[in-house]
Write a structure and sequence with these properties.
This is Metal transporter. Keywords: Membrane, Transmembrane, Transmembrane helix. This protein is mainly alpha-helical. It is built from six helices and no strands. It has helices at residues 10-37, 42-58, 64-84, 93-109, 112-132, 136-161. 34% of the residues are buried.
Amino acid sequence: MNAADRPRTAETVLSDIGLGIVFVLGVGFTAYMLADSWGGTSWVFDLVIAVAVCGLALLRGRWPAGTAVTGLIASAAAVAVSVAADLPQEPGPITALGLAVLVGSALRRLPGPVAGAIGAGGIAVVAAASVLGHGAVPVLAVLIMTGGLLTGAGLRVFDNTRPDRKHRDAAGRPYP
């Protein structure tokens, strides 16, 4: 049985609905604030990236590694494009939140080497944003990613200390 075959619990569905509401409100607010401060269509790029990464975060239960890697690639490309095209800095706050959810979820659920690589990718994206950008947006991205890393690693430790909640791979075998 793999993740796509598992039935979703009521808690998982409710938490995804709540997360989706936060994403929608955050994307809308960020787009409004960028349109107000930068003017023109400067908000469109942030909106597209935020919707893509947040959408991937909502799909993380089905394809944890694929969604995390795709979110990392999209965010890294967004950082490069925003610097090259003189657009608002990426990852924006909601994009950073979606990326932190993806990375934290990967740290919790995936085997050690894969989880470590995805965690390192999350650190690299926010480090690149901090080096290439300035101001509050990269600092906020670092804080949000730090929260995602700590939460994912903490939940992994917690899950592995409970005998009834051991991590299992796609074949159902436990892994550390």
